Amino acid sequence: MPVFVPSPNFDVRSGPPDMVVLHYTDMEDAAGAQAWLCNPESRVSAHYLIGADGKVTQMVREEDRAWHAGVSHWDGSSDVNSRSIGIELDSPGHRPGPPSFPAAQMAALLTLLEAICSRWSIAPRNVVAHSDVAPLRKIDPGEGFPWSQLIEAGLALGVKAVPPADDVTAPSLFAALNRCGYKMPDDDAEAAALVRAFHRRMRPDAVDAQADGLTLALARAFADAVAADRAADPHR
Q1: What is the pLDDT of residues 80-133, one digit of tens each?
Q2: End-of-domain residue from the set 119, 152, 185
Q3: Is residue 164 included in any domain, yes or no?
Q4: Cα-flanking dihedrals φ and ψ of residue 150, to 5°?
Q5: Distance between CA 65 and CA 59 in Å, rounded?
């Protein structure tokens, strides 16, 4: 069972959660992260913090709205905090490169995620990265995060290898990404950030690469997986 250390930084939800957003703390240790997430002056919080050693601390009840996602967007919603549960992973962040996530931490995450998704009927398509919902501002949990473990457990969506598309255009790419859940970009800066966020999730070895035929093919495949996940249970 998680240890409960209450944070004052929360308010009332507008409805039950249907998403999980994964973060890293970008701090030296879990104790410092916990103190910050429970500090009323920080104006930030999360529902859970998972230490590198696998210790799970709960700071906000799942029924309440924690302040973890900030300015964000997913699948047509611009109030991600109201519809999500936020999980922080103890990590120094990108110092100097993408972090790794210890086995004990990942085991605790998988156990916690399975329980959360079961309690709230959260679909795999809605288990996302902070960088997915806030690509202009955030890069966590980063390209080193092992999404494959979540995919194998049926807790997140992934796609198999696909051949590159040969009809790459910006409209076709962003239409596909929008079907995945990403916000349509309003300008070039948002467009570039969106491609980086998608690459961070789907092409971690090419985060800073330009969008190409493989990006479009993966976006279409992921959008198809999202549509299939939605069709499998339209109430989730």
Answers
A1: 999 999 999 999 999 988 999 999 999 999 999 999 999 999 999 999 999 999
A2: 152
A3: no
A4: -70, -40
A5: 11
